[in-house]
Amino acid sequence: MNTNYDLDCLSDSCTLHQNLLIEENKESIEWEKFVKEIEEVVGYNFNNHNLLHQAFTHSSFHQEDKLCESYERLEYVGDSVLNLLIAKEHYFLHPDLLPGKLTRLRAANVDTEKLARVALKYDFHKYLRHKKPLLKAQVEEFKDATVEYPLHSTGLIDPPKVLADIVESLIGAIYIDSNFSMDSTWQVVEGLLQPLITPTNLETHPVTKFYEVCQKNGWSVELIDTWEETGEIEVFVDGKFAGKGKFSGKKLIALNRAAHNAYCEIVKNLNVETTAHNETQN
């Protein structure tokens, strides 16, 4: 009988067991810390902590952790609940607004950029379990871009969708955990979404603003699309270069930036022409 071999195996087994206990204890501490911090941020105590865990589990991580579903189903619920809550709030808060304006106002308060800003404000991305190596860089790029637009860029920057997804999944988790209470969910949502976009600071989309000023003055518009090659779109008004926009990530954002740039140049030129005209008259 090889006693030394048996003792070595026993020692290895004990070491492995100790390491597993240490790892489990570490995960337990981290889990308790995660729950406590999120509950403090949102001002809501979960009855079912597994819902909270699920709300912060991306599908890329779900493939490794078979015991916990990803947030996708909660996101689906949260998206619907959020739209209804905001619609209800605006309906009673702004009784004189027509449906078209109400729709625009709701969209501005629940779109990807708005919700991504909420996630960024509360560092929700730091709690997300995922296997997305590019997420950190995307979040930092988005964070830097928001500096120029404190409230909303109206389509001029590119928010990581996953940030908005976290907020919607969290809302879905609270709605389900609270036994489908719209009042309890709204108490959380109202705080998270501050500052809400109001009719006073609601921006018109840059493409809409651009075409409105051109139509008002009877100007023709031509877009030169070289986005596939250069990531740029150029705008010509009445045959003259008016502006351009560049964003290689998404063509729509390049278009928005081009319209925004052209609009700003047009307004600036109109002011110059008006000033010059007044000086001549004087």
From TrEMBL:
It comes from the Eukaryota. Keywords: Hydrolase. This is RNase III domain-containing protein. Gene3D superfamilies: 3.30.160.20, Ribonuclease III domain (1.10.1520.10). Pfam families: Ribonuclease_3. It comes from Datura stramonium. Transmembrane segments: none annotated. InterPro entries: RNase_III_dom (IPR000999), RNase_III_sf (IPR036389). Residues 35-179 form the RNase III domain. SUPFAM superfamilies: dsRNA-binding domain-like (SSF54768), RNase III domain-like (SSF69065).
